[in-house]
Write a structure and sequence with these properties.
Blueprint lengths: L2 E4 L2 E4 L4 E7 L8 E7 L6 E7 L4 E3 L7 E6 L4 E6 L8 E9 L2 E4 L3 E6 L1
Parallel strand pairs: 2-11
Antiparallel strand pairs: 1-3, 3-8, 4-5, 4-9, 5-6, 7-8, 9-10, 9-11
Length: about 110
Amino acid sequence: VQLQASGGGLVQAGESLTLSCRASRSVSRLNVMGWHRQAPGNQRELVASISRGDTTNYADSVKGRFTISRDDVKNTVYLQMNNLRPEDTSVYYCNAEAGLMGYWGQGTLVTVSS
């Protein structure tokens, strides 16, 4: 599975941004898709995930601000990020799980200025 992430950029605190992750195969057949992030000096952390059954999971730090969704027709998973904070600045990575295999896309940089 190849994953192509896009949508990062520079925004000011309080603004919104939407990340997209397009998969090379049907996302409806992938067990879980998610977004992780990694800031310099920090470990990669889960931001949000969505299962094949549409169960979503969010990091406490983004609950109520970020929304993950999936478009099965476009084979794309989105991360809508609202009310962004400087501490959301990170490289965001899309990932997918299919069976016992995990796949990662390239990162997309999100920078939030105060």
